[in-house]
Every structure is written in C-alpha cells, then in structure tokens.
Amino acid sequence: MRLIIARSNFFSYSETFIEEQINQLEPVDVLYEGWQPSRLKGGGSIYPIPFSILAVRGVLRRALPGLYQKIYTYYLQRFLRDQNIDAFLANYGPLGANIYEACAAEGIPYSVVFLGFDAAEKKTLDTYGSRYATYLPRAKAIICVAESMRANLEAIAGPLPNLHVIPCGVDVSRFTPGTSREGFNVISVARFAEKKGSLKSIKAFEILLQDFPDAQLRMVGDGPLWEEAKEYVTAHGLSSNIHFLGAMGQSDYLPLLQESNVFIQHSVLTPSGDSEGTPVAILEASACGLAICSTRHAGIPDAVVEGKTGLLVDEHDVEGMASALKDLARDLKKTRLMGAAAREHMEAHYDVVKLSVKIKGLLV
C-alpha cells in the first residue's frame, strides 16, 4: 500500500502519537505545514515555484482563501496521481477538510484521525463544521481516539457507520518499568496549557505537602501557562518540592518516569470547548508501571481503570485530587500494585503495534 500521512507540524514533542503512527505505518512520505500541508518530510514540496515559497502562499491564503484552496487542491491532486498513492491518512479534522476534494477527484480513499480539540473546541467546530458534514460521511474511515468524541461529530454529520474508536497507543517495548526512587515521587509530562490543568495539579500537590512534606513533583513541559505556574510555586514557597524541567524529548523524560511512583494530570474541558483525546503521557506512564492520578475527562477513564490502575476525580476538584494523592502516598505497596496493573492494562489494550494494525486495516 502506497500511503501518504499528513500532519500540521513537521515535529512536535507533544504529538508523540503521530510520530508512532508514522513509524508503524511506514508511509511513502509525510505531508506537513498547517491545515493545507504541502511540504514533504522527505524533502521538497507539492508546489512548483513560486507557490513553494512560504511567503507567497501566506499572502495568497490571506488575500484570496477560496482561490488558494483551489490551487492547493489542484497541486495536491497532481502529486497524489504522480506518486500513485493508494490511501491518505490525515491527522486532525481541519486538515481532513482541506485534502478530501483532491482525494475524491483521484478516487483515493481518505481517512481522518480526530485527536481531541478538533472534535470539541467551539471555534474549530464553528469554522469547519459544515465541511465536516460534507466530507466525514464519504471518508473511508474516521478514527477517534476516545468514545467521547463520537457524539459531537455525529451531531454535525449525522450517523457515521465509518467511525471507529481506536485510542492512542504506547510502545510497550520501550516504555517499561524501572526502579522508583525512595520516597513519594510524582511526575507530570504535559504542555502548560489550560486543558492540561497544570496549575490545578500543583495546587493539589501543595495540599499533599501538608501531610507529606518530603514529596517531590517534577514537571516536564512548557507552554503558555508555564510562567504563571512557576510564579505560583515561587510565591508559595514550593520550589524545594516542585521542579520545572522544561520541554524534553521521550528519551530524556523516560528515565524520569521510571524513577517515579505516580503520574499526575488534571485535564479539564475548557470554556472554549478544548478537550483532550487520550493523553499519550498517561499511557507512557502507565506502561512504565506508575499509578495514575487524573480526572474523569475524555478518554482518560478508558486508559485508567479507576481504583485498579489509578485514582480519578471530577474535573476542577483540586481537593479531591489532593485526597487521592494522599491515599497513594499513605500506602506505597498499594500504589506499586496499581502501577503493575497499569502496565498490564497497556500491554492488553494500548500496545501501539496492535493498534496500528487495526488502523492499517481500515485505510483501503
């Protein structure tokens, strides 16, 4: 199968699921650069000069968006034909809205993966909803990483028998348990963005410190709310217990996961409708044998078996999360058993190799 995969970014440390998807499905090439991707990871562009120049495309896209879409469709169609592409897999709903016409014109089955905000955020649905209604029923497959996305998409496009729920996966051969350090060590791997609830995690951990003053929290990631979080920690005298490590690649934070006891993430639905799908960092931590402390949000209750592989609380319940952390800190033996169960759950249901086989079977 000559498969092309499209994504909005060349690489993003927060899109590890897409990286795994590319590694497992082995496409002919990868298209990237925004919702109308034209650059090829292998080098070059679908465009000739002058359209291959980013500045030219930017001016045209802003001044005449309708015309630019027609130009994009023409050159994408020509590229698909010249490369004898058999199947197209688009990541994110808005990207799918821009590639389907070229695929349909060439008779190429296209599939789209929805990863979170693209099935929930109000602005995105307002902008692309009418196009979703047109192209989703015609797709070879619509893949959602959490069951919670189905209702939103079917409210727009009607019943979608071609919709399949396949969660994000984790490489269980790479993310494996290590030896945790002594004490109670908590870790977070997430962008400091509103839907990740990083400040809520910090506040819950702050309450934990009242009873467990030696507990440690390491936070991997950066983002728009990073400075606010650091200022809060400094102002509340928490710097000896909470440590900001910045953005890191998988190879760098993997040993940190393996040294920890508990993974924390207070995911929430934002006022704008932004939502998680299935947070990959939770899957990675689970595969490393960590107990999870998180929220009942999107695909998290599927990834975390409540009371068995971790503890979940309602969104925005900081006190409840603090209580859950205290439960985990009081009984480290039980916490270790939860981590072992989390590892088994990942092996059984979230192995990226097995899930990629499912995706591949849907594409043609």
From TrEMBL:
Q: What is its EC number?
A: 2.4.-.-
List each copy of the Glycosyl transferase family domain by range. 182-344
Query: What is the uppermost EC class here?
Result: transferase
Give the matching InterPro entries. Answer: Glyco_trans_1 (IPR001296), Glyco_trans_4-like_N (IPR028098)
- Give every Glycosyltransferase subfamily 4-like N-terminal domain span: 63-174
Per its UniProt record, what Pfam families does this chain match? Glyco_transf_4, Glycos_transf_1
Q: Which UniProt keywords apply?
A: Glycosyltransferase, Transferase
TM regions (residue ranges):
none
One Gene Ontology term of the molecular function aspect? glycosyltransferase activity
* PANTHER family for this protein: GLYCOSYLTRANSFERASE
This one is known as Glycosyltransferase
Q: Could you read off the lineage of the organism from its UniProt record? A: Bacteria, Pseudomonadati, Bacteroidota, Cytophagia, Cytophagales
